[in-house]
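Problem 12. The chain below contains 387 residues. Write out its predicted structure in token notation.
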Amino acid sequence: MARLNPVDLFDVRSLLTDEEQMIQDVVARFVDERALPLMGEAFDRGRFPSELIPEIAELGLLGSSLEGYGCAGLNAVSYGLICQELERGDSGLRSFASVQSSLCMYPIHAYGSEQQKQRWLPGMAAGEVIGCFGLTEAHGGSDPAAMKTHAKRDGDDWIINGSKMWITNGNIADIAIVWAITDNGITGFVIETDMAGFEAQEIHSKMSLRASVTSGLFFDNVRVPDSNRLAGVTGLKGPLGCLTQARYGITWGPIGAAIACLNEVLDYTANRNLFGRPLAANQAIQIRLADMARRITGAQLLSLQLGRLKDSGKMMPQQVSVAKWNNARMALDIARDCRDILGGAGITTEYAAIRHMLNLESVITYEGTETVHQLVIGRELTGINAF
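Solution.
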């Protein structure tokens, strides 16, 4: 009798189109052959493997769901599968691609002028121009409306002052999509990182997302021409629209991390002998493994349906909140349990579980904490805002 795929109990892959399967396979091969051999060392040393950027771009993974300007124009499910496979390698890889694609290229594509699109998007798709997204501030956290960064008009320019915190790609970025308060409301600007008064300071001593660049951004009378203003949107709906795009990808990413952890522990328990039999022969281990596979299956189905809704133009931000909350929690719980099953060996980066576990502590926090997404759904159920 044929056995089920332990990381795809409901044969979700059969629900993918031929093109979607091909895209997943291409990214999976890249992760297996090029990324995974580097990730343990990169995490240990606290460095982002920037040598992979040209290959990531060559595969068409940057801005993959955008049309034109050198972008691949893939559907939402394909973008989700890209995120899943990249995060199977490491959350830092998926974060890089997610920020570049959903938080930087998307707002230029959605809110920018044709001149801005022509100027920046082709280079970003090619990995030649790297972006970062400046919304979060140290005092604000989950309340972006409390931002203090401000921009004041000065003739044909804007003068920007303030700071942003926890910014992925900050110290490797060529441009920063920065949101600031103006007299007309919250507005986005494309700040070129070589502009006078701009400074990025890398955040060190991290125990999570170590294979990712995280920075603070500081603006001291940065003069930005009005031609760098994203004129197509005003107010919080601008940055929140970007976050919806990124959160969608994040619903897929943790599935990859969970799959990596389960595959690793399946192999370990099959080959680790204790008290005269494989560890996998213990009921307690089998129950834990079965629960992991069950939870991964639920997350796969959730994200696939979310992707189909997105591709049909029916996806709602509240649905993204359900999937981000569920899938990040699922993956973190599985990574922790896998680390425990690995015993003492599980605390080293010889195995992937602790690396994924530590990374997922960030994933469950950024782009809406678990509590924020719970309250989004609570508001949807009751009609009462409890923030």
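Discussion. The longest helix spans residues 237-271. Students who got a different answer should revisit the alignment rule from Section 12.3.
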